Amino acid sequence: MSPIPSRAHAAAIGAFASAALLVLVHPLAAALPLALFVLACLVAPFFPGWAFFVPTTTHGPRTRRAVAITFDDGPDARTLPGLLALLAREKVPATFFLVGRSAAAHPSLVREIVEAGHEVGNHSQTHDPFLMLRSCKRLEGEIGECQGVLARAGVTPLVFRPPVGITNPRLLGALRSHGLACIAFSCRALDFGNRRLKGLKRRILERARPGDIVMLHDRLPPDMPVAPWLEEVAGILEGLREKGLRVAPLSELVGFRVMRTHPPAPGDAASRDPLASPGRASGHAFQAIVKGAPGAARALFFGAFPLLVAGGVALVGTRGTALLLLATLAVARIGSRSRPSGPHPLAGLGFAGATLLALAAALDDTRFMLAYPSVVNAGLLATFALSLRRGPPLVERLARLVTPDLLPAEVRYCRTVTVVWSAFFLLNGSVATALAWWAPRGWWAAYCGALSYLLVGALFTGEYLYRKRRFGRYGPGPFDRVLARIFGNEAVS
Q1: Which of 59, 123, 127, 217 is catalytic?
Q2: Cβ-contact 219, 74 below 8 angstroms
Q3: Is residue 118 among the annotated active site residues?
Q4: What residues contact 260, with CB distance under 8 A and at least 6 apart?
Q5: Residues contacting residue 340 through CB under 8 Å, at least 6 positions apart
Q6: What is the pTM of this model?
Q7: Which of 22, 195, 231, 341 could form a disulfide with 30 if both were Cys (CB 3.0 to 4.6 A apart)?
Q8: Residue 223 pLDDT > 60, yes or no?
Q9: pLDDT per residue over 50-94, tens digit each?
Q10: Residue 123: active-site member
């Protein structure tokens, strides 16, 4: 593994160096490079090609007329026999990024892939789409468990591909602990796990160019036949040949090994839970309090930040408030690292808060704390707006996690909703900034700590009701059942 720091390290050094120089000009000017760095941290996880948090290989040399074909999410017992036969007939090598849970259910399929001359990579144990929001232990466990499953089948991957292509700052340490390199892709069809199969061949061939790592999926939805998918894959292979692009092994394209093979382990006994140990019957009440503290700290910090700032400054001053809030954030962060599982979706926002609080404490300047809601809204605006440009819109990505088979009208609606949320974050951030600069602190606290949350809730509720009224898609919950009776349309419009 390369000891060179990630681009995030370089950006952080540049941001803090610039802030140290700008603070000599004006204290508030120092916040600009730090705010830009925070924005990059918020947006970068959704763009693996940036390789911001983790050194990531996304393509090979552009001067060679060769590409690598990779398949994610397998092994799938329905698709693999036909796919292996097709690849053997076309004499094409491929790399399979396997999910540990599926590989554990079909260890013989893993051996078939390797024996057919293909390569294997790690794609996590459960393919949790929100894996990068989980704790460090959960992240390392997902990677390590998949490594163990594949090792028992006779192969040790040397590369990892994050589920959904999303990365985070904690991934670098997890990969290094398992001796893995990060591999992403430079050409994909946004097929959403083959749920958007129509036009797969065309979308790939339109984008493919020398050096690309092509990402496909070899798992199909249960109700989808295998034959049409195999036809699309065969068309992709034929189209690549017509474009003069040779399909090379991934290891050849990127210039380093992606796996090691060895005899399969005798037997396949389940590994013990490393967190389970006897003799822990005492101190349950104390442990419950300790386990609950991080969640309470997160709720307090992210939910009541403006009110804590306004009240704290009045009671203990700017520096004391900043230090107390830093301590609260530290408790939340320590909890996120110690729990074996559980989401930590506010890591980027926590970093922004810590930076601004540190500046507020160092310079005894309340304005750095008042800038935090504006930075949060700017980060959310950038995330939503960039998804409109690069596609698919963020609301569509989230919707497909629940409803993969969106209709064209629903896709257009998701884009409109993404635009609406972008406009809201722009307006909300502008109001927060104006109040921070020109209004009494109590006005800023009332808006950012109460009214803005009410506006978010009203927008979310209004959109939810309108969507149910227009498209249906009712779930099994009692609220959806009531809406179905009120609106009377249980089918998608």
Answers
A1: 217
A2: yes
A3: no
A4: 155, 156, 158
A5: 135, 137, 138, 141, 275
A6: 0.55
A7: 22
A8: yes
A9: 777 788 888 999 888 999 999 999 899 999 999 999 999 999 999
A10: no
